[in-house]
Amino acid sequence: METINEFFNMLKVSHVYTLIQALLLFLVGYFIAKAISSAAEKVAESKMTTHGLFLLKRTIFYTLLVLFALSALKHIGIDLTILLGAAGIFTVAIGFASQTSASNLISGLFLMIERPFSIGDVIKVNDNAGEVISIDLLSVKLRTFDNLFVRIPNESMIKSAVTTMTKFPIRRADLKLGIAYKEDIENVRDILLKIAEKNVICLEEPAPLFILTGFGTSSVDIQFSVWSKRENFLTLKNEMYQNIKKTFDEQEIEIPFPHVSLYSGSQSKPFNVVMTQESKNIEENKE
User: Fold this and answer.
1) Which is the most buried residue in 8, 134, 237, 274, by most CB within 10 A?
2) Where do the domains of the chain lie?
3) Confidence band of 279 (pLDDT split at 50, 70, 90)
4) CATH for 115-164, among 2.30.30.60, 3.30.530.20, 3.30.365.10, 3.40.50.1820?
5) Is the pTM here over 0.70, yes or no?
6) CATH number of 2-97
7) What average pLDDT does range 237-260 have in this prediction?
């Protein structure tokens, strides 16, 4: 028994005992940090995205682990003042060397707080459009519709107008078309409404919208807007254009194209166009 007591007394005097205590403190801190970060993830599960939960869990875990590691170092007699001073100088140097990264980091935090889009959403930023595959602290990664990888810095995301095309469950397709001036506008309106009514993916509510947008150089310009579920948006738009063209052809409704007429004189009468013999010869040679 005395031998065992002497052994523990020797351990207390030696540095080995202090190192064992510091190691135990670090291990306890590891498990505490893991438990607290997991609990925080469960509490915020219904309020944050999957990517946001991952970052929250990691941030809490490593923050607590660093605090316990510092306590363990202090326990074995390491002067933290010198260590923190060196870390401060290193941080300032890194800060001057990576101002852009710091700006992207802060912008990334704002994006995660504001949450204008999530992973899986389809967004448009300037000339880039695609599916969001990653939201990181420094950048957002997109996969474009032609399967290209695009990395956009978070600072650019904050400064640019971002359109989230999958934020809401339904979308409106605005169909632009023109009819000849001789056509009956009310008849055209009824035909368009019937086309929309027959299309099974066109929603009844909100109802289709018929708008006269103005008088063009060769046509009466119309916007016909219909609604669909967002996953059917492109299908509806293509089907509606095809059905409109087919129905207008059947009903002999003219879809005009630009014409150019030349006028001269005070009464603005058209020029008389006469084909010369030379022009006739050219045409015959072409044939």
Assistant:
1) 237
2) 2-97, 115-164, 170-250
3) low
4) 2.30.30.60
5) no
6) 1.10.287
7) 89
Over the stretch 78-106, which tens digit does the pLDDT of each residue have?
665 655 555 565 565 555 545 666 677 77
Three-state secondary-structure class, residue 253:
coil
Q: Which CATH number fits domain 170-250: 3.40.1050.10, 3.30.70.100, 3.40.50.1100, 3.40.190.10?
A: 3.30.70.100
Task: Report the 3 state secondary structure along the chain.
Answer: CHHHHHHHHHHHHCHHHHHHHHHHHHHHHHHHHHHHHHHHHHHCCCCCCHHHHHHHHHHHHHHHHHHHHHHHHHHCCCCHHHHHHHHHHHHHHHHHHCHHHHHHHHHHHHHHHHCCCCCCCEEEECCEEEEEEEECCCEEEEEECCCCEEEEEHHHHHHCCEEECCCCCEEEEEEEEEECCCCCHHHHHHHHHHHHHHCCCCCCCCCCEEEEEEECCCCEEEEEEEEEEHHHHHHHHHHHHHHHHHHHHHCCCCCCCCCCCCEECCCCEECCCCCCHHHHHHHHHHC
